[in-house]
Design brief:
230 residues; four-stranded antiparallel β-sheet; globular; 2 domains; three-stranded antiparallel β-sheet; Muramoyl-pentapeptide Carboxypeptidase, domain 2; alpha+beta
C-alpha cells in the first residue's frame, strides 16, 4: 500500500494516537476500541476514531468481530505488517534491500551459508546489547530474544505452548516487503538472527527451530528455542 508521508506523519503526530499504535503493535492479540479506551482513559468513540485513522493509512488492519449478536458490528484491530519509513528527501531503502538480496541469490549454493553467517553475527551483537550472559533456561532465552528484536522495531511476544515450552512469536514479518519477494532468503536470515541472539546470551548453544513463517503462508512467524530447561 502506497502511503502519503505527509498523511502518515500527520496521523502519528498525535501523541495519544502514536502510543495507541505502539500498543496495537505490542499486543499479543487483536484489540478492540473498548480495550484501548480502558487502557488510555478515553471514551470508546474517541478510541475508535484513533484506531480508524491508523487503519485509514494502512498501519493497522480492522476486522469485523463476530459476536453472534445483532446491531452494529464491532471491530478488532491488529498490525497490518506494513512498515513505516519517513525520510527527507525520500529514499527507497526497500529497493536497495531487494537488490542486495538478489545479489546474494546469485551466489548459488553459497548464498544460504552467507546469509546465515550474516544473520548470526548481527544476532550476536543484538544479544550482547540486550542482556549479559545468562543461563540457558528456555523462558529467559526466549524473552531475551524478544527484547533484542524489539530494539529493531520488530514486535514480538512470548507464548507458552500446551506442552509447557516457550516460543517466540512475530505477529507480522519484520521484513515483510522484502520477504514477500525473497521468502527463503529472508526467513533464513531471521532464523540465523535468533540463533545469534541465543549464542550471545546462553552458556551453551540452544537449538532454534522455525515453526511458522508469515512469508511462507502461516499466520505468524514462530521460533522454538530449546534451552537446557523449561
Amino acid at each position: 500500500m502506497e502511503r502519503d508521508p505527509q498523511k502518515v506523519s500527520a496521523v502519528l503526530a498525535d501523541p495519544t494516537r502514536y502510543n495507541i499504535y505502539q500498543y496495537v503493535l505490542a499486543a499479543s492479540h487483536p484489540v478492540s476500541a473498548a480495550e484501548v479506551a480502558e487502557r488510555f482513559g478515553l471514551h470508546p468513540n474517541v478510541a475508535r476514531t484513533h484506531l480508524n485513522k491508523l487503519a485509514d493509512i494502512g498501519l493497522v488492519a480492522a476486522m469485523a468481530e463476530k459476536t453472534g449478536k445483532g446491531g452494529r458490528p464491532g471491530y478488532l484491530y491488529s498490525p497490518s505488517g506494513n512498515a513505516v519509513s519517513l525520510t527527507v528527501p525520500a529514499r527507497d531503502f526497500q529497493l536497495l534491500a531487494d537488490l542486495l538480496v538478489q545479489s546474494l541469490a546469485l551466489l548459488g549454493d553459497g548464498a544460504k551459508e552467507a546469509i546465515e553467517q550474516i544473520g548470526r553475527t548481527f544476532g550476536k551483537r543484538l544479544g550482547q546489547e540486550a542482556a549479559a550472559v545468562t543461563s540457558a533456561q528456555q523462558e529467559e532465552l526466549v524473552r531475551t530474544c524478544a527484547e533484542a528484536l524489539h530494539r529493531l522495531g520488530i514486535m514480538t511476544h512470548v507464548a507458552r505452548a500446551e506442552d509447557g515450552s516457550w516460543t517466540l512469536v512475530l505477529k507480522t514479518c519484520g521484513f515483510r516487503e522484502v520477504a514477500a519477494v525473497h521468502p527463503e532468503q529472508v526467513c533464513s536470515l531471521c532464523k540465523a538472527m535468533v540463533e545469534g541472539i541465543t549464542l550471545a546470551v546462553a552458556e551453551a548453544q540452544p537449538k532454534v527451530t522455525q515453526a511458522g513463517s508469515v512469508p511462507k503462508g502461516d499466520k505468524e512467524c514462530v521460533y522454538e528455542v530449546e534451552g537446557s530447561g523449561a
